[in-house]
Amino acid sequence: MERKNWTREELILAFNLYCKIPFGKLNQRNPLVIELSQIIGRTPSSVAFKLVNFASLDPFHQNRGVKGMQNAGKLDKEIYNEFSNNWNDLIFESESLLAEKSGKPNLVESIKKELDFDETKKGIEVISSVKTRVNQSFFRTVVTSIYCNKCAVSNINLPELLIASHIIPWSLNEKERLNPSNGICLSPLYDKVFDKGLMTLDNDFKIIFSKKLLKITDKKTYQSFFENYENQQINLPDKFFPKADFLDFHRKNVFKN
Fold first, then answer.
1. Which of 202, 93, 183 is nearest to 140 (CA)?
2. Does the CA dihedral 37-41-46-51 come out positive or negative?
3. What is the CA radius of gyration of the chain?
């Protein structure tokens, strides 16, 4: 039986899934893999192999020696690079396509109803607002997933207390604001400390706290929440590692030593 070539749409959906599930669950038994296989008419093993192909293109997994199927398709690399260079558009395209192929209501119309949009707004304003909502939701899903749904500092694993924090602040770099490598999963305390420049990371992903935190008068509090984590390496993600350039920007432009 002749093998059917993967289409661009199928690969976009596969990469969307690759982003959302931990590396250790890229297998044919994963319910999400099975679900996607049914949506696109492929076998679960075929989808799982494609996810591993994408992993083999990730610089972190390349350094670990992860290899995809031999002769991984040129289109696989194109899709990987297309996402990497344009997260803003490709996230929305993949999420819209997923809703369509899953037989769900139109994504734009669904979120308009959910957010109770003012119908006097111009169409372009509505699409922009919906796109922002969809993309932010995707970013949070991916960042919390790659950190195994735990705070990278404290190991808190209650979903309600997890935030997808930006290394380069959202407002300062539009191109990279949705790049998962620009995100770290943190609980609210460490998200605030990181955002306010009272914590940063070195290039070995070790925690550096600002000396300003020494002003905390209760020394037990300082020790419990800060001193105990000083110079400790954060819990690292299983893909989309924080980029050195992003960390360097945070140290130079956000951190207050």
1. 183
2. negative
3. 20
Q: Tell me, yes or no, whether 103 lies in a domain.
A: no
Q: What is the model's pLDDT at position 211? A: 94
Asked whether residue 11 carries a pLDDT value surpassing 60, the answer given is yes
By mean pLDDT, which of 8-12, 113-117, 231-235 is the weakest? Answer: 113-117
Residue 5: what pLDDT? 85
CA dist 12 → 57, 140, 196 (Å): 15, 19, 36
Which of 54, 85, 116 is the C-terminal boundary of a domain? 85
Average pLDDT in the 67-93 region?
Answer: 81
In the chain the first and final C-alpha atoms are separated, in Å, by 64
Residue 74 lies in a domain: yes
Whether residue 129 contacts residue 108, with contact meaning beta carbons closer than 8 Å, is answered with: no
Average confidence (pLDDT) over 156-168:
96
Question: DSSP letters along 69-112, please?
Answer: STT--HHHHHHHHHHHH-HHHHHHHHHHHHHHHTTPPPHHHHHH
Distance CA 7, CA 179 (A): 24
In a domain, 178, yes or no: yes
Q: Quote the pTM value.
A: 0.86
Cβ atoms of residues 203 and 226 within 8 Å: no
Token reading at 160: 């309600």
Last residue of a domain, one of 85, 101, 127: 85
* Rounded distance between C-alpha atoms, residue 184 and residue 174, angstroms: 17
198 DSSP 8-state letter:
S
Domain that holds residue 180: 149-253
